[in-house]
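Morning run. Coffee first, then this:
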Amino acid sequence: MKYIDMFCNFITKHMTLIFGVASCMALFWPSRFSWSKSTWIAPLLMLIMLGMGLTMQLSDFKLVLTRPRDLLVGCVAQFTIMPLLAFGLGKVFNLDTALLVGVVLVGTCPGGTASNVVTYLANGDVTLSVSMTSVNTLLAPILTPLITYLLLRANIKVDVYSLFISIMQIVILPLAIGFVLNKVFQRVAEFLRDILPSLSVLAITFIIIIVVSHNSDKVLATSGVVFIVVVLHNLLGMGCGFALGKLLKFPMSKLKALAVEVGMQNSALATSLAATTFPNLAMATIPGAVFSVWHNLSGAIFATLFRNKN
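And here it is:
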């Protein structure tokens, strides 16, 4: 167990470095990963969602009753600011249809568990962060397809039903299984909780490798504009979340949680949805892969800068 703990701690501590190295290797030496298959993306994401389900408690949803205003603000901000920023940036930078779809999917997905970790490291309101992530994830099967359709219907045919089914299979089902395991097999759940964060990092790493290696030529051709859009999307999202909290006179702990929750997306889900729902648009998976690398770096910087700000 000692060596397992050491391995897991190493993986989670150096996840940004791992993502960066994996991205570079997949980009410049794609032939080394010719064994990988795009059909692995959905199962890998389901593993990540299973891990999230194992960490969920009924107490995560008590804030719906005790602090409804905070959660409502987080939900509205998540599903308005990031989708609109994504669509606006896509139009400003004149992205082609595939990249626009990928960027919008990043924007319409909920926040991921990485936002909870960054909020914790930044000394933010972790309870609010976890609750916002949980509630927004449960709303995703309805809101993600609907908002994606509204934003992209003029550019491409969006199969709302397929998006809904994909999110139910990839997100809600493993979440429910994890939640049940947490309640019924508590000892097993406790063991899995210790190792699943590192497994999630490895799963995201493999998703990045698959996406980047399979599209390395196209990534190299468009990496500049994609990177700029992803960076602006993430930073503007954080900035808008922070500004909204300031406007509503949130205390600093809530400001940190809201900024991180809005700006950091479940980009692995966006990548999976792009691959399963838009199979003819290979480049739609790229923005999610780039976002997965970048937002962990920006999150680490945010936590460092704001940790001691109260």
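The chain has a mean pLDDT of 82. Good start to the day.
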